[in-house]
Amino acid sequence: MPLIETVNLCQNSDGRDILKNVSLKVDRGEVFALIGPTGAGKTTLLRLIDLLDLPTSGKIYFDGSDVFESGKRKLEARRRMAFVLQKPVVFNMSVYDNIAYGLKLRRVDKGSIRQKVGRILEMVGLSTYQNRNARTLSGGEVQRVAIARAIVSEPDVLLLDEPTANLDPVSTAKIEQLITDIIRRDDTTIIMATHDMSQGQRLADRVGVLLDGEIRQTGGFQDIFTAPGSREVADFVGVENIIDGVIASNDDKVVTIDIGDNVIAAISDYAVGEKVYACIRPEDVTLALSRISSSARNSFSAKITRVVSRGQLSRIEMDCGFPLVALITKRSTEELNLAATREVYAIFKATGVHVIKRKSD
Amino acid sequence: MTEIWHGLTKAIGLIISLDPEVTEIAGRSLMISLTSTLLTSLICLPLGSLIHFKQFPGKRLVISLIQTFFGIPTVAIGLFVFILFSRAGPLGGLNLLFTPAVMVLGQMILITPLLLGLTIAALSGVDKVIPDTARSLGASGFQMTIIVLREARFAVMATVIMGFGRAISEVGIALIVGGNIRGFTRVITTAISLETAKGDLELSLALGIILIFIALIVNILLNRLQPR
Ligand SMILES: Nc1ncnc2c1ncn2[C@@H]1O[C@H](COP(=O)(O)OP(=O)(O)OP(=O)(O)O)[C@@H](O)[C@H]1O
Ligand SMILES: [Mg+2]
Question: What angle do CA A84, A88, A91 make, to 5 degrees?
């Protein structure tokens, strides 16, 4: 039985659908990342799950029971969760009292409060700040207080909304380490929203892609990354080369895709005549100066249109009769002396092409 | 001029020597106004919170109506309460007219809009994320209200102090429904307005100084509450 289940949740505000039929199941002990671009509805969904807002329609089951049955049930369910809001604020009181707040609400005795708060302060590295007014803390410290305040009551479910947005890399690393510690320490179920896919990859067991108020795909990070289920998901997870085509032949799952002037070889189940997208991740494209024979079935002569280097990587934009982007190391760029207007060969394997069915519209 | 000077020194003498009449009147003023402020706070802090946190149709209208009554003339309330409690009035049977109790009630009516309005304003000044934070950490509706009031504590205290300031300095209600009965309902403001007319300048001046002193203390308290 999932610990949290939402069924056809819809949220409508001023006649606009912010969430559309969101159905999710999150198991006990699972770390689930909601990823999606800004405005997708991540915060809205987390607020519904934490029972802060009421959905326009749909149901939420917490540990098997319908939370909207009564106000009492809602409070009980909410007390088994803790939510670190996207822009956390601290109460105008000491760091210690901020962290103790949830325990006081639950009428925990003073001795246990002191013990628990002390332990958490240690864990988030704020012991020396315990008597300071929390309003005087920096952004990263506030974030740590917010997380400490949430986990001190040992919730079954921890909801995190963009826990590292607006933080510098050092603070981000600290917060991620803290979350990893929480995951390792007890089997807290975590649902976190992030627009940072790599963070989702680092922390989560499973991700759900939320686009425009809809869950478009859920699964392991690798599955979504290599096999996005739709063009929009492919776009979001950073598949830059998405090419329209039609299956021209299918020989035991080895297909050729007619993309107009060219043909791409790929692996797919789709039948001849199916309209598809061929998705090629830029890092799966390699470049060579001469036509070399390799096991890769796709090799196109290309003219470089632009080279952009950032850090250790270079982004090579090419025209092969169709636009294609490759991501290669800066070192190979230099070795091959790649620059705009140079003629090269772009090579990628048939297995590196992910084929998505195009919706007929 | 010398007469005023003479009166002033005598008045200060009355205060320093803790003249029984002066202390009695000042004490009664404090008693009545503190009582009315306390009772009104007990009603208006929860009620103002309720209005602030609950969504209901006509909420805007209710709030602007409350603000309209901030400056209601005291004599109007005095008259209203007088009619209410006069022998022929609906509450005449209680025999409360010209008692401290009815003065407290009148002052309560006077400062209720002020306390309600300022409580709502104080709560509106709190970061909107605070209530959500409290609830997300497990607060019930009541516990959430308490923490938001606590976050607004300076503004809330300022509200109460301003209510007290208005209550102790008003004269219309105290005069009309209290009647300035010596030793029973006579308070600072009624004594000043009637004793001056009778020519007892020393008593009036002494009470006036005390009233200004109270106003000063109220202001100092308010200033100390200003966020730095
Ligand atoms: N109270 C509201 N009234 C009207 N529209 C709202 C409200 N709250 C959110 N929205 C809209 O709903 C959409 C989803 O908002 P939401 O905050 O859930 O997005 P998000 O995925 O969390 O984005 P971000 O990554 O920027 O935090 C946005 O278009 C937003 O403008
Ligand atoms: Mg958000």
Answer: 110
What is the tally of structural domains in chain A? Answer: 2
pLDDT range class, residue A341, cuts 50, 70, 90: confident
Residue with tokens 């890399």: A169
- Report CB contact under 8 Å: A85, B143: no
B130 in contact with A, Cβ within 8 Å: yes
Q: Report the residue of B137, B151, B228 to disrupt the A interface, i.e. the one with the largest count of A CBs within 10 Å.
A: B137
CATH number (domain holding residue B177): 1.10.3720.10
Residues A75 and A163 in one domain: yes
> Which ipTM was obtained for this model?
0.81
What pLDDT was estimated at residue B227? Answer: 62
The CATH number of whichever domain residue A285 belongs to comes to 2.40.50.100
- Burial pattern B122-154, b for ≥16 Cβ within 10 A else e, equals bbeebeeebbbbbbbbbbbbebbbebbbebbeb
- Short-list B12, B170, B37, CA closest to B104: B37
Q: Which of A179, A212, A231 is the last residue of a domain?
A: A231
- The 10s digit of each residue's pLDDT in B180-213 is 999 999 999 999 998 888 888 888 889 999 999 9
Nearest to A89 among B127, B135, B143 (CB): B127
Residues A29 and A161 in one domain: yes
Per the structure, the complete domain to which residue B134 belongs is given by 2-225
B125 in contact with chain A, both atoms CB, cutoff 8 A: no
Question: Looking at the complex, does the CB of residue B157 fall below 8 Å from at least one CB of chain A?
Answer: no
Q: Give the structural domain span for A17.
A: 4-231
Residue A44 Cβ inside 6 Å of ligand 1? The answer reads: yes
